[in-house]
Amino acid sequence: MSKELYHIPVLLHEVIRYLNPAPGKRYIDATLGGGGHCEALLQAGAVVLGIDRDPEALAHAREHLKEYLEARPGPNNLRTDNLKNAPGRVLTLIKGDFGQLTELALPTGFKSVDGILFDFGVSSHQLEDPSRGFSFKAKALLDMRMDPEGQKVTAADLINKLPENDIAEIIKNYGQEHRAFQLAHAIVRARGLSPITTTEQLAAIVVRNRPRSKGDKIHPATRTFQALRIAVNWELESIAKALEAVPGLVQSKGVFVAISFHSLEDRLVKNFLKNNKEIMEIITKKPITPTDLEIKTNPKSRSAKLRVAIKK
Ligand SMILES: C[S@@+](CC[C@H](N)C(=O)[O-])C[C@H]1O[C@@H](n2cnc3c(N)ncnc32)[C@H](O)[C@@H]1O
């Protein structure tokens, strides 16, 4: 699959401008996805540790970034200061949850890096591949695991096994859905008749029980599906843990860049920066958002918010 079909990197120019890659500089891309941001760093001569919890993202990167996996930093490129345990490659790929960022980065020699990038959420590939069960638009088993090899609990497990109140809390807290309790009740009633196993079944239950109001720009099932995805992948817990690890991994003058796609992610980033003002200088007083042109060419970028800080 082509890179563009897998995922179009969001705010690419802005991300690269702030990270400012150059030969020998070292970065952690904690959300490799389709590898678009990572490739731009590599093209500038940087050395990158790419992390993703999704085995398909890593397989795609291994194929598309093959030349970098085989390359070694040139003599002028190699910084030996903290590369003691590093394999000395231009690109190192690791499968893992960025919630364990320090544990993933340190054994590969990536400490005191020049920058860390987070591009939260799911890739277009994850969203659009019916076998992954993330979207109400594709008929599929209700799965939503980012790491189907390592994670046991699917969205169908949550929907069919959790008590009504827990389902309501998930939909309310992670979907910011004001009809959460009504929807949870409808889900529990429906699963009493037959298990809810497909995206189509769940979307139909939501549509029947959450009439679209006039002002609604999004599909009625959007918030419920977002909520389940966050719960299945404990996304907010991982983000909170990863942010805590940032100051310990970035060197002085190193750059932290995070792209969020909804207010729950952005709030965690904002609070992290607010609580670490002594260590991190905030560069973007207001988040940077995509231009009209970017939104036109890649509508999925429309809710992106980029925040940048530099370690003092
Ligand atoms: C929006 S995509 C990143 C796209 C990428 N920047 C690009 O240029 O193609 C987000 C990626 O982060 C990964 N991801 C999400 N949560 C993760 C976590 N806790 N640990 C590791 N990877 C995660 C997803 O599997 C997905 O591939």
From TrEMBL:
Where S-adenosyl-L-methionine binds, per the record, is at G35, G36, H37, D52, F98, D119, Q126
- Sorted alphabetically, which Gene3D superfamilies does this protein's record hold? Putative methyltransferase TM0872, insert domain, Vaccinia Virus protein VP39
Reaction(s) catalysed (UniProt annotation): cytidine(1402) in 16S rRNA + S-adenosyl-L-methionine = N(4)-methylcytidine(1402) in 16S rRNA + S-adenosyl-L-homocysteine + H(+)
Q: Which UniProt keywords apply?
A: Cytoplasm, Methyltransferase, rRNA processing, S-adenosyl-L-methionine, Transferase
Renumbered to this chain, the signal peptide range is none
Q: Listed GO molecular functions?
A: rRNA (cytosine-N4-)-methyltransferase activity
Q: Where in the cell is it found?
A: Cytoplasm
Kindly name one Pfam family recorded for this protein. Answer: Methyltransf_5
Domain of life per record: Bacteria
GO terms, biological process: rRNA base methylation
Q: Which residue ranges does UniProt annotate as crossing the membrane?
A: none
E.C. numbers: 2.1.1.199
Concerning its family, UniProt says: Belongs to the methyltransferase superfamily. RsmH family.
Stated role: Specifically methylates the N4 position of cytidine in position 1402 (C1402) of 16S rRNA.
Q: What is this protein called?
A: Ribosomal RNA small subunit methyltransferase H
Q: Which organism is it from?
A: Candidatus Woesebacteria bacterium GW2011_GWA1_43_12
